[in-house]
Amino acid sequence: MPEIRKDPVFGRWVIIASERGLRPNEFRAGQEAGYACPFCAGHEELTPPEIYSLPGPDGRWRLRVVRNKYPALEAGGSVENRRSGIYDKMDGMGFHEVVIETPEHGRLLEQMPDEAVADVVRTFALRVKEIKNDGRIKYVMIFKNHGRNAGASLLHPHSQIIAMPMAPLRVMQEIDGAADYHRERGTCVFCDIVREESEFKLRVVGENADFLAVTPYASRFSFETWILPKKHASHFEDLPGSQASSLAAVLKTTLAKLNASLPDLSYNLIVHTMPVQEPSAEHYHWHIEIMPKLTHVAGFEWGTGFYINTVSPEDAAEILNTGRKFKL
Ligand SMILES: [Zn+2]
Ligand SMILES: [Zn+2]
Ligand SMILES: [Zn+2]
Questions:
Q1: Ligand 3: centre distance to CA 90 (Å)
Q2: Percentages of the chain per state (helix, strand, coil), in multiples of 5
Q3: Between the CA of residue 213 and those of 228, 231, 244, what are the distances in Å?
Q4: How many other C-beta atoms can be found within 10 angstroms of the C-beta atom of residue 281?
Q5: 3-state class of 90 per DSSP?
Q6: pTM for this structure?
């Protein structure tokens, strides 16, 4: 059973999951003879039991959700805080699921048909709605690691969902920051960003009726890109079914542009949303953050929480919109 320990200085929680160290690395294993990708069609017996799937036209699946074989958090266990001496810890209770986005091994998300990407997005929302019925779960993190430099251990297109019994510090800092902004100005900071960026168009890389993709004003990483719903919404899982296609369209455009300009792209994609047991909020607005991995986070960043970004977000938007190749 993994353990969740609280850092007594920061109040930040850390998952200690030793078993996860044993998981295979396909970037190594993929080169070995006889390697079978567990996410490919026909290898269903290599994954843990299926939680959800969508049938394809041929009667086989076109998308599957399975439990992670090497979970960071596990169902069962208690969410009771256990103090010993100066330290606090909890059982590593939670859920860790894998969304296998396609049966095809080599197909990138941005190369999939619009409706297939919309299915992925709808599945994310559906899983969160289902998971939050368990009142012990406070936060559900949806993320995707793509490419060797982004920490992906399997090549086959997939995303992950980790449901946890507390809201993470990083998320709470963002929500608190947005709450301060709302208190001072009476508006949602993300709605204001959408309005400002749509008007000046200096950093817009994708747009349709429902969503806006921008390289944020204070981007931490080169080519960092956010996707924001134009209409205020605090909870991602409440995404109207009709908006799944428009979100898929902007997501595909954004990833295609990043791929065109950044050869051999590795990235992390995350969904930031309100803690699932909280009611709708006026001050917070869910969004997607995509962080291309061009450099490693190093000493200065770790030491300060400050980032040095060598490509201005205005230049990044210009490069992405013209399709120019970029090399650091
Ligand atoms: Zn595969
Ligand atoms: Zn808003
Ligand atoms: Zn965020």
A1: 26
A2: 30, 25, 45
A3: 6, 14, 15
A4: 18
A5: strand
A6: 0.95
